[in-house]
Write a structure and sequence with these properties.
This protein is about 50% helix and about 15% strand. The protein is built from 14 helices and eight strands. It has an eight-stranded mixed sheet, sandwiched between helices.
Length: about 350
């Protein structure tokens, strides 16, 4: 028996009072709305579980401070850590062929960051760049890695910087790709943070947000890949994993922390003494190259900056060879704080 039918029966049992009872009408509307939301949530839950089944973990798991982290390890040699951007996961680097290229020379470690892919994101922690830097530092210790080159793309670049500032002895060199480093006014960031709101955010992330994200997926790809077309190799990226309610909420939380994270660190960049290569596309429609990457280059005296003409935000996908060259450049650098 539906909620609406139950309410009608209650109303019919009091025929003399029906004219004066308006509350049941509102209750009926509320019951219909709640039922519709519940149905949408169940459908989204079904697709989320199916996505996880269809895209089984490709790597191993580490339990670090109560967080179950999924990671992939390939190759041998000097350790190289790859940190993906907001809303992404290991398969971004996998589909770009960057892991395969780097594994010919390096011991490549790629994490699903908290809340993305197959990694947990406990809600009692505010997953700032600093918090994630501490998590990955402990993960590397568990993997018996004391010193590594770290590449971060987009939001991952913020974590790479935080790791280098907090644990400079662990970070041998940095490759910062398409990052956001200085606070600016971003109305799009404020709007995208809605799923993080208490109660309302949970309702949105389990009901309307996956539907909206699915409908706008082509527009999002056009923006982040533009002016390039989406490369065919990106078809291997598991879209449905990114559209799960849990991952949408994680992405919204990171959007909300983007500006505060940059605000905290932007006066510390000159403290970075290890080799740093900054790389970004000059047609990036998500993060302005001149106010971010170019400005960062001027703040870090020993950094090298590669401006990629005609490329957008997803340079690991559209300019994979150039990103690989940046990794090799850092690996070959002998610069030290004393020089």
């Amino acid at each position: 028996m539906t909620a609406a039918r139950s309410i009608r029966r209650v109303r019919q049992s009091f025929p003399g009072q029906n004219r004066n009872l308006k509350t049941p009408f509102y209750l009926e509307a509320a019951a219909v709305a709640v039922g519709a939301l519940a149905a949408i949530a169940l459908v989204n839950q079904h697709f989320a579980k199916k996505a996880a089944r269809d895209n089984a973990p490709a790597g191993r798991f580490l339990d670090v401070n109560g967080v179950r982290l999924h990671y992939v390890e390939r190759g041998s040699g000097e350790p190289l850590v790859l940190l993906h951007g907001n809303g992404s996961m290991i398969q971004d680097f996998e589909s770009s062929d960057l892991i395969e290229l780097a594994a010919k020379r390096f011991r490549v470690i790629v994490f699903d960051r908290p809340g993305f892919g197959h990694s947990d994101r406990p809600r009692h922690v505010v997953w700032t760049p600093d918090a994630q830097a501490e998590l990955f530092k402990e993960a590397l210790v568990r993997l018996r890695i004391s010193n590594a080159i770290v590449l971060g793309h987009s939001w991952g670049a913020s974590i790479a910087v935080a790791m280098a500032l907090k644990f400079p002895g662990m970070v041998r060199g940095l490759i910062l790709a398409s990052g956001y480093y200085y606070p600016t006014i971003r109305l799009d960031v404020v709007a995208s943070a809605a799923p993080t709101l208490p109660v309302i955010g949970d309702i949105l992330s389990h009901t309307f947000s996956p539907l909206l994200s699915r409908a706008t997926w082509p527009l999002v790809l056009a923006k982040v890949f533009g002016p390039h077309a989406v490369p065919k190799k990106f078809e291997a990226f598991p879209k449905e994993m990114a559209l799960r309610p849990s991952q949408i909420r994680a992405a919204a939380a990171e959007s909300a922390m983007m500006i505060p994270g940059a605000l905290k660190h932007h006066h510390q960049y000159a403290d970075l003494k290890m080799p740093v290569v900054i790389i970004a596309g000059d047609k990036d429609r998500l993060i302005d190259l001149n106010t971010q990457s170019a400005r960062l280059h001027s703040a870090i005296w020993q950094s090298r900056f590669h401006r990629l003409p005609g490329h957008g935000h997803m340079i690991q996908q559209t300019a994979t060879d150039q990103v690989m060259s940046a990794i090799s450049e850092v690996a070959g650098a002998k610069l030290s704080a004393a020089e």
